[in-house]
Amino acid sequence: VNASNREKILSWLQSQPTQNRTVLLEDRSVELSQVAVQGPSSRELLMSLGGKALEGLKLHHTCDGTIGGLPCLLARTGYTGELGYEVYIDADKVGRLWDLLIDKGQVWGLKPAGLGARDLLRLEMGYLLYGNDMGEDTTPLEANADWTVSFQKGTFIGSQTLLAQKQAGVARRFVAFELVEKAVPRHGFSILDPKDSQPIGNVTSGNLSPLLQKGIGLGYVPLSYSNPGTPLAIEIRGKTVPAIAVKPPFYKRRKASLAQA
Topology of 146-246 in CATH? Predict the structure, then answer.
């Protein structure tokens, strides 16, 4: 889970009844580390270092493997929108893995990147960030994530609430927007009705896209404002900046990258 939400999620999991099933819940956050290797050459790089188990690994699947002789769990996952993998390894070995990747990855164009860069990439793809774009006060139906919910699998936590909302229809919807003028939307800024400048929602994620050279963001608005092409406005430091609702992702991957995915 996201490290900043570890304690909250662990506490919630521990509070759930097991319904007469034996469940072992172990928090190994301190014991394990993760390194994400993302980009069009990520597969070739990791396979060149011994990650042969990645051959044919499907999206969102995992397998045991070795990188540079170091045992690890390899996951075909990531939050960048590109082909990529996340490597889970014992915390006392992650330094060796990092040094190996930096050394051998140079010929593949590998560069280290922090969470700020990762957050820009996920924003350009329109991916939701837990704690910003979704949380206890939102539902998957409001967040355009109803594809994650199956009402055919039986009763689950929150199923009745979601089913009632599905039948009644949502009152608000998650929306992506682009600024028409050069400015930077930030988390917490107000989304306004451009006709009367009245608040209709809040920005949940926002930044200046280095690739697109324009301000982009995400947020929740009433259903009538959520269709792509709908005019919006963002209040930025006392100024009303025009924006328009768009269909995510903001950044479209090249066909070559899609073929590798």
Answer: Elongation Factor Tu (Ef-tu); domain 3 (2.40.30)
